[in-house]
Amino acid sequence: MEYDAIILGGGPGGYSTAIRLGQNGKKALMIEENKIGGECLNYGCIPSKAIIEMADAISYLKEMPGVKSSVTIDMKTWQEWKWGMINKLTSGVEKLVTSYGGEVVKGKGMIVNASSVTVNNETFNAKNIVIATGSTPTRIRGIDDVLYNKEILDVDHIPSSLIVIGGGYIGVELGTAFAKLGSSVTIVEMMPNILPGTDTDLSRFVERRMNSLGIKIILGAKVDKVAKSGGYKVTLASGEILEADLVVMTIGRVPVTQGFGLEKINPEMDGKFIKVDKRKRTSIDGVYAVGDVSGPPMLAHKAFYDAEIAADNISGKVAEVDYMAMPFVIYSDPEIVTTGTKTEKFSNVPLATNGRALGMNYNQGLFRMYVDDDYVIKGAAFVAPRASELISEISLAVEAGLTSKDLGMTIHPHPTLSEGVKEAAEATYGKSLHFKSSSR
Fold first, then answer.
1. Residue 414 designated active-site
2. What pLDDT score was predicted for residue 301?
3. Which fold, 328-427?
4. Which of helix, strand or coil describes residue 289?
5. On the CB side of 374, how many CA atoms lie within 13 Å of its CA?
6. Is the previous residue joined to 334 through a cis bond, with omega within 30 degrees of 0?
7. What are the residue ranges of CATH 3.50.50.60 in the chain?
8. Among the options 157, 301, 412, 414, which is catalytic?
9. CATH (residue range 2-137+254-314)
10. What is the DSSP letter of 313?
11. Which residues of the chain have pLDDT under 50?
């Protein structure tokens, strides 16, 4: 049997491609070596946010004025719950693929040529191949025995002390969560600031919060070696030695481009990534690439979007990617979210003016809106609790070409965090209701 497409990888990019192809009436075969759902559902996005939710809940009660609480954490029971929740999601994804006529094969897929793939000693043929192999944590040669996101999210106890190598978004998210759960946390970052690539006037709120949680942040520091003997010893280039029960490495991710026969077709590369055009086509006819392996940003929701574009093109439609409003979320405390592009004209509304935020015991953060000279919304940046749930309104506004006055005239319920979005829009034209604004 010949398929319309064979998909290598069952993560967000892979399973989304299979589902959309099925919705388009096409026959897809999805091959996954490990767990359906890939890194995101099993070892990344979902379990990391689950542990962050638990940590936030405990911290919320602990820090609320007038509340005295004592919590016992049984991580073994929590892990059983977590995996039960994840398994429901992954089995649901697999059922969706098959419900649209797709097939799923568990095993290691190897490319033979641009229209054939082998798995479990069987060869399958297709009109198209979609590479959705994702990414893997960056490793440092010579530094072994450390934990990565997969292992740290599977711990059966809360470590009394934890060293996080890397102060990017993954390190900040995990470090903050474990600090709230009771670990003594130290973060080591090579760059002069945490969250490199994030505007410091946004990340300063997060750094301030981390300091209040007792997290030790060592900046401009390079790790020379890590030794494990019972506990861990981390030696910095300066000669300083740090000790902890566990060490987790969070210095970024790299695309998976080896181990599945990519060299058999040898597509054009863009650095470490497979080069694609706006239709997600590689330089090889009939071969597509989606998600992390096809270029940054390496985000699950980008993979979902890429998958739709690739599937529609395979189905005979003409569709092109347009990342004009790609939201980026850091699940820190408070959360940092951005979307769209920056402009010279923008507003800043302090989180402290939002009644709902104050009722949640939050007063550090901001709502920022970027507009052009005609007040057309071009982007935004929020630092606030649950900011990840607010940013899609701005992505829609950017995509639709709405103005800040359109958003300012939209009734938002009171009291909500979403009022901060409305206030930021109004502030761009000097009419913020609860804050005397001075837009730039």
1. yes
2. 97
3. Enolase-like; domain 1 (3.30.390)
4. strand
5. 4
6. yes
7. 2-137+254-314, 149-251
8. 414
9. 3.50.50.60
10. H
11. none
